[in-house]
């Protein structure tokens, strides 16, 4: 039963990682920008939700307002920083992405300090008992909300007019621009969705827990799910997120005691390495053949 519980907890944690990872992928698909600061957007979303709740808003309203505020902030910061860099060398864009990591982390600490904060209980549910298998209700509902958010974003990208424009930009910037597709609008869409997903995953992951300056490390934990799915994939990121979540929880339960807590940090990247050895572009990534 203990192993079954580890699997279930890994699946639910993986659904949350899937929402974080989808934030990486939706922005890459919209603008070809490797958003290394997705973990910092999660951190920003978490502090926005906590801050709004401090004004007396209910946890649910704080959550919804925090999603909107995080999405808007991400769009403003992303467009101001990255729109002038479109068409520049990849290393220049990567350097800007690295800079954004430090900027967002520092701004959160400047605004709210490093003191631990009690995050509102957005998904406040009791333990579910299924014939002796006890499941954390808060984690379960949070995971399902994250799954629903990713599915909604995937449908928007695949079937809406704006989403199809985003896909065109992902395939080729130059061709998309020649067809009248606005790269700026595509980038705004990507940052809005990426920021929104970050706040949703923050609400699910930290509901009823404490915030601290290290919570942005969730970005590094979810990154293997993004790369394993393929940077162009959105709908299937929860699948790879589940693989990553299960590997992390099992390593945490059975190997961390023998490895000073390092096994659970390394195992998701071991899974990622095995996947990219077999399929370099990721399980669901686009296979692109470059020819001269």
**Looking at the structure, what is the overall shape?**
globular
Give a quick account of the main beta sheet: strands, pairing sense, barrel closure.
2 strands, antiparallel
- Helix content estimate: 55-70%
Percent in strands: under 5%
Give the oligomeric state of the chains in this entry, treating copies of one chain as homo and distinct chains as hetero: single chain
Task: Indicate the structural class.
Answer: mainly alpha
Strand order of the largest sheet: 1-4
Description:
- The protein has a domain at 18-217.
- Helix content is 70%, strand content 3%.
- It has eleven helices and four strands.
- The chain has a two-stranded antiparallel ribbon with strand order 1-4. Strands 2-3 form a two-stranded antiparallel ribbon.
- With 292 residues, the protein is mainly alpha-helical.
- The model has no long low-confidence stretch (mean pLDDT 87).
For the structure shown, list the relevant keywords.
292 residues; mainly alpha; two-stranded antiparallel ribbon; two-stranded antiparallel sheet; 11 helices; 70% helix; 3% strand
Write the layout of secondary structure elements.
Elements lengths: L1 H30 L6 H16 L5 H24 L7 H23 L4 E2 L9 E3 L2 E3 L1 H23 L1 H11 L1 H6 L4 H24 L3 E2 L6 H12 L7 H18 L8 H16 L14
Antiparallel strand pairs: 1-4, 2-3
Helix pairs in contact: 1-5, 1-6, 1-8, 1-9, 1-10, 2-3, 2-4, 2-8, 3-8, 5-6, 5-8, 6-8, 9-10, 9-11, 10-11
């Amino acid at each position: 039963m203990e192993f079954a519980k580890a699997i279930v907890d890994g699946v639910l944690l993986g659904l949350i990682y899937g929402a974080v990872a989808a934030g990486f992928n939706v922005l890459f698909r919209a603008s070809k920008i490797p958003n290394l600061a997705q973990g910092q957007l999660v951190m920003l979303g978490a502090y926005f939700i906590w801050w709004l709740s401090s004004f007396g808003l209910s946890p649910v309203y704080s959550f919804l307002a925090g999603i909107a505020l995080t999405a808007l902030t991400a769009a403003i910061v992303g467009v101001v920083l990255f729109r002038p860099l479109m068409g520049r060398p990849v290393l220049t864009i990567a350097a800007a992405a690295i800079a954004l990591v430090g900027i967002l982390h520092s701004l959160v600490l400047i605004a709210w300090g490093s003191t631990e904060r009690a995050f509102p209980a957005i998904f406040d549910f009791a333990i579910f008992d299924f014939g002796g298998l006890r499941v954390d209700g808060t984690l379960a509902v949070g995971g399902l909300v994250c799954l629903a958010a990713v599915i909604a974003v995937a449908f928007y990208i695949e079937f809406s007019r704006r989403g199809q424009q985003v896909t065109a930009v992902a395939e080729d910037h130059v061709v998309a621009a020649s067809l009248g597709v606005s790269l700026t609008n595509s980038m705004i869409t990507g940052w809005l969705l990426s920021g929104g997903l970050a706040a949703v995953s923050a609400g699910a992951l930290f509901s009823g827990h404490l915030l601290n300056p290290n919570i942005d490390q969730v970005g590094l934990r979810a990154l293997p799910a993004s790369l394993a799915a393929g940077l162009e994939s959105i709908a299937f990121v929860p699948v790879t997120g589940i693989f990553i979540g299960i590997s992390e929880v099992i390593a945490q339960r059975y190997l961390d005691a023998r490895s000073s807590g390092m096994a659970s940090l390394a195992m998701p990247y071991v899974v990622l390495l095995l996947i990219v050895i077999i399929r370099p572009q990721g399980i669901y990534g686009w296979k692109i053949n470059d020819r001269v």
